[in-house]
Design brief:
This protein is α/β, with parallel strands linked by helices. It folds into three domains: about 5-145, NAD(P)-binding Rossmann-like Domain (Rossmann fold, 3-Layer(aba) Sandwich), CATH 3.40.50.720; about 145-310, no CATH class; about 315-384, RNA polymerase sigma factor, region 2, helix turn helix motif (Rna Polymerase Sigma Factor, Chain: A). Helices cover about 45% and strands about 15% of the residues. It is built from 17 helices and eleven strands. The chain has a seven-stranded parallel beta sheet with strand order 4-3-2-1-5-6-7, sandwiched between helices. A four-stranded mixed beta sheet has the order 9-8-10-11, covered by helices on one side. Helix 12 (about 215-225) runs parallel beside helix 14. It starts with a strand and ends with a helix.
């Protein structure tokens, strides 16, 4: 009998964390939950997970939520405060699932890597803004991608040797506004942008998918995860979101990973890597007629991928600038303070204002965090 894998789940009540809880609870013989972390804003959901998964330790950022949790579970070890997620990430375990949203995931990512645990990484922002700060700390094969696109690439790459790879091809759904021109995009409401055609995600990722900022972030992530030159990574629009990404080899073969859009599949694979778990998510139904289409990205209407590529080439702290400005701009759009088209325009303006003096190999955590703070402050000023 296989020994259960000891798991820590960060961002437990978010989109990734709740789907991970479903995978874990349906496979109790495979996993033993050591710790959970959450902001505390969804306390009933966190309480339900504590009852179902029986963790030893829970980290909660909100002090009041932590007190309520202690009252509900007197025997449970509860860590509170802003650093609680990083403390839980450092617990002794086999795999840490980082499902935190945004730049807040950086320090927990570093804590997990320093602890020696496998890191199932759904928090792409920590790798993107951290860059070499993260990659220097990671041991070979310590980071397991959980984004559906990067999980697909990791699976396809197992079919060949590294020096046989010609290019990586990331697929994008195109979001809810695929085919629109810029004049139509200006009047989009937050409610429209939060309605993704194929995926059920949190608000930040959903808006970033609508602007294609998310695909720009994923391009940078693929560059860092797989050490692939940027000119050998492509993005193609695939509205059905069935083919999650592809690897093209130098003999002309292209291998694609296909499955219905369900994040439980890459989450389950991230938790059990390199093994698979039976019946994590439904498979494609090959008995029914279906159609898959692919088309080029409209870079003129959706400039985010091009901007992300520029940022990745420049290196330094610019990826952190890009991400920090975007998180502020998305929040402003959701508050109806800027139009939809203002999100990427704000990010472009902040990136252009920064003097990128630090070389990539000189970066330290303090540099990344300072750049993130600067970007957020400047973005707020521009929006105001």
């Amino acid at each position: 009998m296989t020994t259960p894998r000891r798991v820590v789940s960060l961002g437990a009540t978010g989109s990734i964390g709740t789907q991970a809880a479903d995978v874990i609870s349906r496979n109790p013989e495979r996993f033993d939950v050591v710790g959970l972390s959450a902001t505390g804003r969804k306390l009933p959901e966190l309480i339900a997970q504590v009852r179902d998964l029986a963790p030893q330790v829970v980290g909660v950022a909100d002090d009041q939520a932590a007190e309520e949790l202690r009252s509900e579970f007197p025997q449970l070890e509860v860590i509170d405060g802003e650093s609680s997620a990083a403390e839980v990430a450092a617990l002794e375990c086999d795999v840490v699932l980082n499902g935190i949203s945004g730049a807040a995931g950086l320090e927990p990512t570093l804590a997990a890597l320093d602890s020696g645990s496998k890191l199932a990484l759904a928090n792409k922002e920590s790798l993107i803004i951290g860059g070499p700060v993260v990659t220097r700390r990671a041991k070979p094969d310590q980071i397991i991608p959980v984004d559906s696109e990067h999980s697909a690439l990791a699976q396809a790459l197992r079919a060949g040797k590294r020096d046989e790879v010609d290019r990586l091809i990331l697929t994008a759904s195109g979001g809810p506004f695929r085919g629109w021109d810029e004049s139509r995009l200006r009047g989009i409401s937050p409610e429209q942008a939060l309605s993704h055609p194929t995926w059920d995600m949190g608000p930040l990722v959903t808006i970033n998918s609508a602007t294609l900022v998310n695909k720009g972030l994923e391009l940078i992530e693929a560059h860092l995860l797989f050490d692939m030159p940027l000119d050998r990574i492509e993005v193609v629009v695939h509205p059905q979101s069935i083919v999650h990404s592809m690897v093209q080899f130098y003999d002309g073969s292209t291998l694609a990973q296909a499955s219905p859009p369900d994040m439980r599949l890459p989450i389950g694979l991230g938790l059990a890597w390199p093994d698979r778990i039976a019946d994590v998510a439904p498979a494609c139904d090959w008995s029914r007629p279906t159609e898959w289409t692919f088309e080029p990205v409209d870079h003129e209407t959706f400039p985010a991928i091009g901007l992300a590529t520029e940022v990745a080439r420049a290196g330094g702290v610019l990826p952190a600038i890009f991400n920090g400005a975007d998180e502020v701009a998305v929040a402003a759009f959701l508050d109806n303070r800027i139009p939809f088209t203002g999100i990427v325009k704000t990010v472009r303006s902040v990136v252009d204002l920064y003097d990128n003096g630090l070389a990539r190999n000189e970066l330290e955590v303090a540099d990344v965090l300072a750049a993130d703070r600067w970007a957020r402050s400047v973005a707020q000023d521009l929006i105001t």
